[in-house]
Amino acid sequence: MIDENVVRHVAWLARIQLEEDELKKFIPQFTKILEYFSILDEVQEDVEPLYHVNELKNVFRDDEPEDPLPRDEILRNAPKKENGYFRGPRIV
Amino acid sequence: MRIRDWIESDDKERILEEVLRKAKKNEYNEFITVNENVFISKDSLKGLPVAIKDNISTKGIETTCASLILRGYVPPYDAHVVELLKNAEASIIGKTNMDEFAMGTTSETSYFGVVRNPWDKKRVAGGSSGGSAAAVAGGVVPVALGSDTGGSVRCPASFCGIVGLKPTYGAVSRYGLIAYANSLEQIGVFANTVEDVALIYNIIKGKDERDATSQDSEDVFPLNEDPRKIRVGVPREYFGEGVDEGVEREVWKAIKLMEDLGAEYEEISMKYTKYALPAYYIIAMSEASSNLARYDGIRYGLRFEEDEDFETTISKIRAKGFGEEVKRRILLGTYALSKGYYGRYYLKALKVRRLIKEEFDRVLSKFDVLVTPTMPFTAPKIGEIKDPLSLYMADVNTVPVNLAGVPAVSVPCGFSKALPVGMQIIGKRFNERRLLEIARWYEVNSKVRRWS
Q: Which of A9, B90, B127, B369 could pair with B99 as two cysteines, CB 3.0-4.6 Å apart?
């Protein structure tokens, strides 16, 4: 059952602060979409889940150190930075 | 424009100027960024103008995924396919408009506005790679790259009356493709002819160490002109409810033409088809919820002047930076992966994926290709389909191919009420050569193709 609490909880898990009108809109939409998804319940065969179509295993490469991208290039896209570091919001 | 027109032209400078003029005019809202820093050379492919979907990283050229959250982001490296195109000395003309993070079927979810269909500007170009398709169909460039997670190359190719290839999963490196649903997506090619698609695909395919799922495969260029003993499977379920009469008529005409030309066809049934759409959306949304967790405004992207505590700050950035469809998919994906629902939705969808993949392998062991309508209808009007679930349903014929990981191409096969109809030809895993040879053989004999 999709209700306001479920959508609020999922939005919290996904770290998206929904507006009230979005929340109201999503409840009936999610109900309808999930109801449609539940036609999968008709499939009875129990097989192994397929994570990846080519089912490759253990694709290794040599563990050679390489030069990383220069620090200033990586920082170029950062909206806030300080002394060569990203500046994040306060955590504690 | 075909690639041949470029190669044979002795005034490439004039063509390139014309391409840039059209790209800047942006008649169909097909470009987000135009790159004027292109060079020119007189021989072969050198300088060939190519447009790139805006979710494929281009060093030094803004790459936004058509999202506010990535506006202003300039990648410090090139995607592998872009490296390969640059090695072939192609000119990157610009970054094309698309559905935000490739989530959509009509290119209406772009932060930069809807892409218009060159056949009728009141209609959508299809999605999610709508800008790439419109740039080719509108005669701006001869070639463009897109990405296809559930039909995002084939759908706009179909709506815009051009050729669009989704390669086998693993045939093209995804390094530098900004992820939406990694286990489903591939970079694909748009052009006016199958031959041009083959030429560009041949350049971008192959193993790359930075994408562990990539593999080498047989060269496809040049294509043999006369493929023989063609066996075509026609799965009934793909002509089901919701398929427009005109679309069905044109695809059947194409199948009959192939028969007249010596191919054998057989109608078959693929019983898991109806489960492909829900399985696809559950897997794609689940992967999206994980992939898009990285957008927090710290290393790149949208950030507000004032910070609050960590959780509030990133929750507000993500609320403002993502559009409605992206939020819908992240939230539904989060739900499908959450405690108590994981088994019912995500795990169930992965099991159904195995059944669908095995059904494709079985059927494709008997036929060279399968033929279906690419889309159930021709290009709808802008704003015509509003309900999210109805839009998802439009992908009914394209998503099974991504679940199975096999290659497919959409080729123009006729018109319904003056709008192009696309036919989907599905091939065997890593056998793009046979697929494209059959597509080209049909294209040459059908005389439906058109280029500008």
A: B127
